[in-house]
Fold this sequence. Notes:
The protein is about 40% helix and about 20% strand. The radius of gyration is 17 Å and the shape is globular. It is built from 9 helices and 11 strands. The protein has about 260 residues and is of the alpha/beta class.
Amino acid sequence: MTVLPTSPRPTLQLRSVLLGEGRPKVCVPLVATTAAALGVAAAALPMGDVDLVELRIDFLDALGDTVSVIAAVEAVRTALPDGIPILFTFRTAREGGQRDVSADDYEALLAVAVSAGVDAVDVEMFTERDHLVRIVENAHAAGIAVVMSSHDFAKTPPRDEIVSRLVAQQELGADVVKIAVMPTSPRDVLTLMDATDYFVATVATRPVITMSMGALGVISRLAGETFGSSLTFGSVGAASAPGQVDARTLRSILDVVHAAG
């Protein structure tokens, strides 16, 4: 692999949000189970503390109903200011989500999201390859960004493996690359941050999102600007992953770190 510097860091524009520039952006997941409840939750967000919203559609009760999925997207979009992007995510159970679906249904669900006009879709990198390629192509044909992701809730892989996954996501057509891992020691957190720093400093051509989960990994959600992560997830009410920090507190800490930089 040829190592070349990539400065300044890569960016991506999503509505009013420039991902990859300045302090990490704050994304708040919505985990309600109905379209109406999602709209209420979106309207109640502290908008000054939120840059993006993740619609975690795997929590939706009527997931198999296309009309209900579209209604969920519309309810959230209507409740949000125009400048706030929506990231549509179906997190599979194997990667920490609420349920699993077949590869065919996963592809069809993300196609519904694309047609409903979200700003970005999360695509798990270990999706069956033919389906993954079509999902990426369909999103790009509609002008929708792809956040490609990998999650390991059992461990933190070695630095080279983390970097390898991020590189693979770029090569698979991701507009944003993402990995979340579980630490079992402070050294694991350092491994995640070191891998991110190396990737960003050498081969990154896309904005990157990385995090170390759980209580041990909280520092990785706060110091992303230092080592190159462009977005962090904060909670308002129910959290969607272990270690998420309250969005208002998170935004304040990110501002302090940015001002000191």
